[in-house]
Design a protein that fits this description.
This protein has seven helices and seven strands. With about 180 residues, it is of the alpha/beta class. Helix content is about 50%, strand content about 15%. It has a five-stranded parallel β-sheet with strand order 2-5-1-6-7, with helices on both faces. A hairpin with a 3-residue loop joins strand 3 (about 40) and strand 4. The radius of gyration is 16 Å and the shape is globular. The chain has a single domain, classed as P-loop containing nucleotide triphosphate hydrolases (Rossmann fold, 3-Layer(aba) Sandwich), CATH 3.40.50.300. One of its GO terms (molecular function) is kinase activity. This is Adenylate kinase family enzyme. Keywords: Kinase, Transferase. It holds the Pfam family AAA. It comes from Sphaerisporangium krabiense.
Length: about 180
């Protein structure tokens, strides 16, 4: 199976961006961070041209995205992809990762998508990555499981990992692209 259009799916904190960058580098494909494409302004403003821009990128012959996909582009990405790498890790793996990342971002006031920063106030919002990862873990697992069984996406090669060690071993074995 030759991977040319790859989605890396999982819940917040699974390591989607890290895996997407590693796969893209190994296969010599462009890597796209979906949050960076969607959130382009202050106060987490959403790019009004997001769906159109995604359609342009998805039409390219090769790419890697680090996301399950936002609702407005999810079917587009899943239809165009040839491979889904599913990082399906337990909460015991996810939560320390997402908490460390958010704590670092908050303390260091790291700029993320659209120049935004995570704040202490946001830690109490249901949209904060830590809360999202905790409350949506089972839901996201079910959504991805449903999609990989959906006949509309039968064309996809699914690479399913339930531990970071499995994913790391597979990544080391991944042969470089042309």
């Amino acid at each position: 199976m030759r991977m040319r259009r790859v989605l890396v799916a999982g819940i917040s904190g699974a390591g989607k961006t890290t895996m997407a960058r590693a796969v893209a580098s190994r296969l010599r494909l462009s890597c796209h961070e979906l949050d960076a494409l969607r959130f382009t302004g202050p106060n987490w403003a959403i790019d009004p041209g997001f769906a159109g821009r995604m359609a342009e990128i998805a039409a390219a012959p090769g790419w890697v995205f680090d996301s399950f996909g936002y609702p407005e582009v999810r079917d587009l990405l899943w239809t165009r992809a040839d491979t889904v790498i599913w990082l399906d890790y337990p909460r015991s793996v996810i939560m320390p990762r997402v908490l460390r990342r958010s704590l670092r971002r908050t303390l260091l006031r790291e700029r993320v998508f659209g120049g935004n920063v995570e704040t202490w106030r946001e830690w109490f919002s249901r949209h904060h990555p830590a809360w999202w990862a905790w409350t949506q873990h089972a839901t996201r697992h079910s959504e991805i499981a449903s999609r990989v069984r959906d006949p509309r996406f039968a064309h996809l090669h699914v690479v399913h990992f339930t531990s970071p060690r499995e994913a790391d071993d597979w990544l080391r074995s991944l042969r470089p692209g042309p």
